[in-house]
Amino acid sequence: MAAGKGVWSIDIGHAAIKALRCTVHDDGFWLVADAFDYIEYPKLLTLPDTNPEQMIRDALKEFLSRNELKNDKVAISVPGQAGLARFFKAPPVEAKRIPDIVKYEAKQQIPFPLDEVVWDYQPMPGAHVEEGISLETEIGIFAMKRDQVFRSLQPFLDAGIDVDFVQLTPVALYNFVAHDLLTANPTKEEYDPANQPESYVILSMGTETTDLVITNGFRVWQRSLPIGGNHFTKQLTRDLKLTFAKAEHLKRHAREADDAKLIFQSMRPKFNELVTDIQRSIGFFQTLDRKAKISRIVPVGNAMKLPGLVSYLAKNLGYEAVEIDGFQKLSGSEVTSSAAFRDNIMSFATCYGMCLQGQRKSCLQTNLLPQEILVDRLIREKKPWAVAAVAALLLACTVNFFFHWKAWNTADPEKFAQAISAVKWVEQQSSSHKSTDDQYMTDAENLRAIGNYVVGNEENRRLWPELLRAVTASLPTYEGKPEELWKMPIEERPFLYIDSVESKYYPDVSFWYTVSLRERYRQTVDNSKRLDEAAEVGLTAEDLDEKGAAPVEEGAEPGAANPMTPAAAPDASMEEEITPAEGEEAMEMVDENGEIVDALAGPTESGWVIQLKGKHFHNSTKARQNSGPQYVRNTLIHQLESGSIMLDDGSGQMIEVSMKELGISHPVIVLDSVPRTVQVDNPDYDPATMGMNGEAGMMAPMGGVNPMGAAGEIVPPKIPVKVYEFTVQFCWQETPVSKRIENKKLEAEAAAEAAAAAAAAEEGF
């Protein structure tokens, strides 16, 4: 048995439990193996007549009876197919921003909500930081569903074993190869992605699956192949008509069989199937990393001891095989020279990799142990101290009570009985008066609240819903049948996509309406007049485009870096130049009183500035004059400037209300960009036809082909479409129903007075 200060790595397989204990050598570099255990089950866990939970429980009980874990850390491995690994390259950013980028990327890469998984990440070797900027940083994200993690931990929890590290088997194998085999690799400062060192293919065959890991020490890629040792046994049971137990025995001792040739011929289809799966996986990896140079295969796992399998793989794959007959950087002759250890050395590669991680000697240090287990363990460790603290506090309270009781006991309570009684009576009277006063104050506050509610202006609740309804009504719609809409090309669909709606209150909205916004609003007014004149003769924006209307710029309009932050308020001299500006044509209109006013005059008094951020794909080359910013002006801006909606007048009757009556005015495009080409999802692309999803990582299914169209053409998952992104702002000065009704009455009275004055003037004439 070994002393403390070590790491036990435990690998629960389908055929046996493997365990290895390592400590760090005095030189701080080598690991020393000072204990191991190999406990084989009576039967394979995958057989239908077995009880896997009970067999694992019995094996762990036997392990604890033979080994001492006190003061040691424990690391366990979980099968590769139980988790997932994703790798991405982070952009050059400050190193302190890497966690934020990783969290965003994890939401995209992990196909489950993050609260349902246990995940961790780590930059891969080869990344470096210069002046606080992370460059060429490839980051690995490793995740496992929370219920699967606890299912893997349950045997250890039942056995009373505290686990410190949970790691995926492929990652443990990578740590083993990077530390023990890739000894001639360059340092991370010398690493050149364009001239990579040689890569090794690690083949870890288990009972049901084979983990394939490809790494050059700086990058790693993995996937799980659905073929294992049991598949060879089942092939023998079918071909030779044997029971599973006999076929398993015959497989392990194939060379001593009477007819060894017949056995190998029976297993040859599975040999070919395994080679095909490996070749397909390696081929897919090389499409992802064309600069990778694969030179060797590293077979691990007892299933690889099948006679002739390693040489068959090396011959058909065309790579040299590295047969594991010892670990180069693991000392401890008492373990490494043991016959049982050497007989099963190929199955201890995972345990070796876990020991490296437990002793902080591995490249990857990610840990999938749930945080709540660490918290529970910390609380359990602190409980004795907490009990001791409570006991000390209780003792102190007892001593303190004793001194107080002694002081109280020295006084004669009878001397103060009458005074105490009088004080209690006064106290009761005071409490009664306070209670009555509190009740009166509560009743008064309730009456005041009821009064405020009764006389309050309830109609203000409708203002924001009316505003949102006005914005929604200003978006373009399709009047035809839905099925016709979805047959249209994306760039011809009449859609505006609003990504966000923001608002900001101004005590004086003229502060927002600067000289630059005035010029943008001139374009809005010109465009609105153009559309109104076209509507009078029955033309639409598309008709104007076909008739060759004046071209509209597609460049980015000038805007501030933050559209919601206004420019500095103009001084008096600037205000004098605004109406009209130098070289600017004055735009005049007549108000309801017959007075000429400036159409470009900005809003005054208090109000809100509403900002809409969005985009559209309506950028067809067939309608260049109704695309980009012009399409926004022809639809959203025009409706906000001169449109109307149906609203309740307060009595349940729907009436038409214009945008100006709602208080909406001066819509402008404050910020946009030149239409650019982006990749969007192809509506004709059917992922159900894919056999391989094209993503890197072990979760990709095998044997995929590109989806084909009806005519045999390749249908891409993404198609290029031009997108135009914009930011629109407009002023909104709250106008409730009562104020709108009052304004209509005033307008009607003014119109009546004007009509009467005109009639009187005509009679006088």
UniProtKB/TrEMBL annotation:
Compositional bias ranges of the Low complexity kind: 549-563
Domain of life of the native organism: Bacteria
Signal peptide: none
Pfam family, one: PilM_2
InterPro entries: ATPase_NBD, FtsA/MreB, PilM
CDD domains listed in its UniProt record: ASKHA_NBD_PilM
Sequence segments annotated as region (Disordered): 536-576
Protein name per UniProt: Competence protein A
Organism: Blastopirellula retiformator
Lineage: Bacteria, Pseudomonadati, Planctomycetota, Planctomycetia, Pirellulales
